[in-house]
Amino acid sequence: MSEPVRPPSDLDQLADRFVDDYAASQPAVATYIGVRGHDDRWPDLTPDGHAAHADLLRTTIAAVDRVDPVDRRDEVARAAMLERLGAELARSDAGWAQADLNTIDSPLQAFRSTFDLMPTVTEHDWATIARRLAAVPAALDG
């Protein structure tokens, strides 16, 4: 039997805002996870872009740390968020996010593979692909 539906907790709302902010910060990831609205953009790969992303992680970790869980779901979600965001921030602080270049999975390969995940049904879909494709050179200049 499933648990009754409860109204979103403060942590649920914080997590939802984080997903929105993360998707805006990392448009290719947004495409990968199915968050629409960012399909014509690329992440900012400049040092300032990496710093802004790390700030998003730091700010969110601090906010999650201040939230008191209301139930077991919140306890699990809070622990998972702190662990995952902390690991990503540690990777960023160590400089690995800026040095991620390999032949299988790195930001460079993501430029190519992201197009495979984009819808191609309507003229609007193709126009979005064209805008994202046109933005590749500027994104790589960072």
Describe this structure in words.
The chain is mostly helical and 142 residues long. The protein folds into 2 domains: 8-37 and 46-99, Up-down Bundle (Methane Monooxygenase Hydroxylase, Chain G, domain 1); 103-142. Helix content is 64%, strand content 0%. It has helices at residues 10-25, 27-33, 47-66, 72-93, 107-114, 123-134, 136-141. The longest helix has 22 residues, at 72-93.
- Radius of gyration over alpha carbons? 17 Å
How many β-strand runs? Answer: 0
Helix content: 55-70%
Largest sheet: none
Poorly predicted parts: none
Task: Specify the structural class.
Answer: mainly alpha
Corresponding CATH architecture of the largest domain: Up-down Bundle
SSE order, as H and E? HHHHHHH
The mean pLDDT is: 91
CATH top level assignment of the largest domain:
Mainly Alpha
- By CATH, the topology of the largest domain is Methane Monooxygenase Hydroxylase, Chain G, domain 1
Strand content: under 5%
In DSSP terms (H or I, runs of 4 or more residues), the helix count works out at 7
Q: How many structurally independent domains?
A: 2
How far from one another are the termini? 51 Å
Choose one word for the global shape.
globular
